[in-house]
Amino acid sequence: xxxxxxxxxxxxxxxxxxxxxxxxxxxxxxxxxxxxxxxxxxxxxxxxxxxxxxxxxxxxxxxxxxxxxxxxxxxxxxxxxxxxxxxxxxxxxxxxxxxxxxxxxxxxxxxxxxxxxxxxxxxxxxxxxxxxxxxxxxxxxxxxxxxxxxxxxxxxxxxxxxxxxxxxxxxxxxxxxxxxxxxxxxxxxxxxxxxxxxxxxxxxxxxxxxxxxxxxxxxxxxxxxxxxxxxxxxxxxxxxxxxxxxxxxxxxxxxxxxxxxxxxxxxxxxxx
Length: 272
Hints:
This protein is α+β, with helices and mostly antiparallel strands. The protein has one domain. It is about 55% helix and about 15% strand. The strands form 2 sheets. A 3-stranded antiparallel beta sheet has the order 1-3-2. A hairpin with a 5-residue loop joins strand 2 and strand 3. The longest helix has about 35 residues, at about 170-205.
């Protein structure tokens, strides 16, 4: 497992360093193909060697997201969950979104972290570029805002009410990032569906059964280990306007996904 994870990590690091888009896409494609195949092979190996060796079990890992109070942590969590969902990883989220607890097989969590480490900077750069354009300032949305009126004596009063108000910068950024994460999720799930179909064609129903068994293992483990109460409500990004939504979706489609079966990231460390 350590050798394969290291191989995937080397491919991801090379992809991030290269200036050639064609070479980057090829490297990312190969990295995700290996990680997908590795996950499938590990699931089948767990099933085949159940009576001979100690069966691999899911683990729990705490993953930091950011410092308390940092704007956008909720959308960072949404991105992490989008990637994890495609890699059979479940999550509990801290109330303030400063960290998550990942539940899944070690190699799947490793791959999720690696992909997240590259996609997150892309999301931040894209949202920064969108904000610098300032196009959101020309939009208005229906939301609560502060209205003012002048009374008979000329005194100005303020009150909060619903109405059409300019899009706030914070709302535009969060709306962009939330849409970006949702787009990444859709693309990854489509890639996963294709990879699973390919595996089933190549290995037959045994691959499907092994994958299903691995998913059930993680689900059962999560139910036993999770102590979370309530449910996470997402980033709760307010309406940032149609422009932010469209730009976030377009940027999500521009993320380095190679041939639509690969998405890569930089691994700072690879361990078994």
